[in-house]
Specification:
Elements (H helix, E strand, L loop, with lengths): L7 E5 L10 H7 L9 E8 L4 E3 L6 H5 L4 H12 L3 E5 H6 L7 H4 L4 H11 L6 E6 L9 H5 L2 E5 H7 L8 E6 L6 H10 L4 E4 L3 H10 L4 E6 L13 E2 L12 E10 L2 E9 L12 E2 L1
Parallel strand pairs: 2-8, 2-9, 4-5, 4-8, 5-6, 6-7
Antiparallel strand pairs: 1-11, 3-10, 7-13, 9-12, 11-12
Length: 284
């Protein structure tokens, strides 16, 4: 498949769901992989001092990951398992050519990612859902031309209705521009998406945690230190959410290693209550 060396398995809980991976993916991943049939899972790469984003630095995610093929490979596996990938307006803006498809992030494994999706009975690609409370996204982004789902407020939908390409669907979830993240997950479930991968930024992830809807976190620890910088120049894993006091805990499920990068998987434990049911989201 490529010159990428297999990940070394350091720890794995025996209770994890397991599904067969195509041979090429299984070899590189260090075994089979599975997810619960219905789950919300997030994927991040962070420096050793906990930074996941540097807004002023172009392609800061690639910089933080140290342009690591193993990180891209694992991201591809997670995308290949997803019914839907949730991103935010900031992530869309920072990736002017992004597609959020498995084969795009790690092309050498493209045939195996495709075989995995076929084996899972999934469509060729996950639906990409863009969250923007204000409707402040570039309607000319290539993702929208190829077809995407925009989740927004009533005002945001009004702004976007006449400017997004026909292939894109706009759903108004609430009148308020600050949207309850439980409504977002509920709307995706209503569209038939059981496995939802969050590749949004740390503010959206913080909102999802605060709403109690995250089931698992996949966190790559990169051997990089970046320091603190000026106020607002670095974002940590969780932004805009105060989880203290509370019972939000992470239980370690697996650890893999590739060189000096560590790939960890956690179950997120702690919920805030049942998700509200959206009242027939309006399509625009």
């Amino acid at each position: 498949m490529s010159e990428l060396q297999p990940l070394e398995v350091l720890y794995e809980a025996g209770s994890l769901p397991r599904g067969p991976l195509p041979a090429g993916l299984r070899e590189l991943f260090g075994g089979d992989f599975g997810l619960d049939e219905r789950c919300v899972y997030a994927n991040f790469v962070a420096t050793l001092d906990g930074v996941v984003s540097i807004p002023a630095l172009r392609s800061s995610n690639t910089f933080i990951a140290r342009d690591n093929d193993a990180d891209r490979f694992v991201m591809g596996v997670l995308r290949a398992y997803a019914d839907a990938v949730l991103i935010g307006s900031g992530v869309l803006r920072a990736s002017p050519r992004g597609t959020w498809r498995a084969e795009a992030i790690y092309p050498p494994a493209a045939p195996d990612y495709e075989a995995l999706r076929e084996g899972l009975g999934l469509q060729a690609a996950p639906e990409i859902a863009v969250l923007t409370g204000r409707g402040s996204i570039d309607p000319g982004h290539p993702l929208l031309a190829s077809g995407a789902l925009v989740l927004t407020s009533t005002a945001g939908a009004d702004r976007l209705a006449a400017v997004v390409p026909e292939a894109t669907t706009v759903l108004a979830l609430a009148d308020e521009e600050t949207i309850d993240l439980r409504l977002v997950v509920a709307a995706l479930h209503e569209r038939g998406h059981a496995r939802i991968l969050c590749e949004a930024g740390p503010h959206t992830f913080g909102g999802l945690l605060g709403a109690g809807v995250v089931d698992e976190l996949f966190l790559t620890s990169s051997p990089l230190l970046v320091g603190e910088g000026e106020a607002g120049s670095r974002y940590s894993l969780v932004e805009g959410a105060d989880l203290v006091p509370g019972e939000m805990n992470a239980r370690l499920l697996s650890v893999r290693r590739h060189g000096s990068h560590l790939f960890t998987r956690y179950a997120i434990e702690g919920r805030t209550g049942p998700a509200p049911t959206p009242s027939s989201p309006a399509a625009r």
